[in-house]
Amino acid sequence: MDVLTALLLVHLIPVSTPKNGMSSKSRKRIMPDPVTEPPVTDPVYEALLYCNIPSVAERSMEGHAPHHFKLVSVHVFIRHGDRYPLYVIPKTKRPEIDCTLVANRKPYHPKLEAFISHMSKGSGASFESPLNSLPLYPNHPLCEMGELTQTGVVQHLQNGQLLRDIYLKKHKLLPNDWSADQLYLETTGKSRTLQSGLALLYGFLPDFDWKKIYFRHQPSALFCSGSCYCPVRNQYLEKEQRRQYLLRLKNSQLEKTYGEMAKIVDVPTKQLRAANPIDSMLCHFCHNVSFPCTRNGCVDMEHFKVIKTHQIEDERERREKKLYFGYSLLGAHPILNQTIGRMQRATEGRKEELFALYSAHDVTLSPVLSALGLSEARFPRFAARLIFELWQDREKPSEHSVRILYNGVDVTFHTSFCQDHHKRSPKPMCPLENLVRFVKRDMFVALGGSGTNYYDACHREGF
């Protein structure tokens, strides 16, 4: 049974409390029907994928290569795991999710207890400020806004263990006596990203030596380091946000749904929309907690489906209109440029930064996926992972290749810089120079201006 089938079979979907006041114990749950991918986009199915409920271990394509290829370095970009909402639906009770970690509670992971113990020893660890003031694991009986949940920790313990089995046990990427400079760790200043990074790292390197761990702080969700000022990128974003707004105005069913929900919670429609109710609703959905009710009625599954369907339509139009693509090329350039620099140093035989981990957000991964030309890639789910692998051909040691994987699926030949490679070459992987040329030149060509570098593209006149 594949992971999705298992997920669909075990996961129950929340329903709103009936008006006759039946208790939650006697309330019926609704099981989703499809066990294979539905032919038409199904908002419930898409939401289940987004939740990414930990279940059976997944099959993945990381680390697959012909036997004469040697793994040189690995670059991992993750979205934080499952979190408590960032917004609340006005005038409703917050969903009651417990953010303390309990080893024998679902979702379970065999390393959870050891992870808690190890994190409690790391309070004096040296992280770049302000990370050193953040808690190393979630620990509130009622989750705080945006806080990582136990599900989020387990998702990344699983990610780390999967990468350990492939990259350390099978490919020996790091020696047993690995040193601090062989890891590169970077996270934004949110507890959920730091904790997700630590959970993955613990799954990858159980009981790691705290003295060897140093997380750098990244102030920008784009991980643009010292290259964040980019006026043209911001103009693309403004146009993209305008497109989103106009699409929403055209959707009468969405407006009707927001109006119904606003009546239920007794606030103006505008206020409800501003509270971004889908964020809170997804938490109810992913944790199988009933949607909120008031004396005016209940927010229900039909409301959820309408809003989720609009999100899916928005993503589809976003791909067609290309404004987000322009934003993505400029938004993703600094982090991709940093990654190819790290890869190029590894090809010279340098042994530092062989494993890089960026613990980030959906707004980090999404532009990178778009910039790479992965237009069919789904929006980053909780604990999504995007991985760049660098390989050396042992038969021709001067030749290096890359593989790109998204949530365990090899998407290398779907990228814009390598989709024609199969037609021209019998080689099983994408030459590193294709990625380097893409980042150094083709990203700017795709923007359509005369700029051939990041600065010029960011400061183009008359855009």
TrEMBL record:
GO cellular component terms attached to this protein's record: Golgi membrane
Signal peptide positions (record): 1-18
Key word Nucleus present: no
Bilayer topology annotation: Single-pass type II membrane protein
Keyword Transmembrane helix assigned: yes
Keyword vocabulary terms for this entry: Glycoprotein, Golgi apparatus, Hydrolase, Membrane, Signal, Signal-anchor, Transmembrane, Transmembrane helix
Function: Responsible for the 2-O-dephosphorylation of xylose in the glycosaminoglycan-protein linkage region of proteoglycans thereby regulating the amount of mature glycosaminoglycan (GAG) chains. Sulfated glycosaminoglycans (GAGs), including heparan sulfate and chondroitin sulfate, are synthesized on the so-called common GAG-protein linkage region (GlcUAbeta1-3Galbeta1-3Galbeta1-4Xylbeta1-O-Ser) of core proteins, which is formed by the stepwise addition of monosaccharide residues by the respective specific glycosyltransferases.
Family: Belongs to the histidine acid phosphatase family.
Subunit composition and interactions: Interacts with B3GAT3; the interaction increases the 2-phosphoxylose phosphatase activity of PXYLP1 during completion of linkage region formation in a B3GAT3-mediated manner.
Protein name: 2-phosphoxylose phosphatase 1
Organism: Homo sapiens (Human)
Gene: PXYLP1
